[in-house]
Design goal:
Number of helices: 4
Strand content: under 5%
Shape: flat
Number of domains: 1
Helix content: 55-70%
Radius of gyration: 14 Å
Order of helices and strands: HHHH
Distance between the termini: 14 Å
Largest sheet: none
Length: 64
Amino acid sequence: MAKAVRGGDAPTVAAKAIVAAATDAKPKPRYTAGPLAGRARVLRRFTPAGVFDKRIRKMNQLAG
């Protein structure tokens, strides 16, 4: 898990999404923070839950 965190997006990416959510005149229900989250969002939208879970586990190098 630590390796996946080190290889993730910079904290500033999340901070920018948080600032956008807090300051938008018409905030959206969800904000995507960075390219990795964007890919996960698309994957979740178009794949069955089991496939999505397996891919997320693989990306984070988790067993199962």
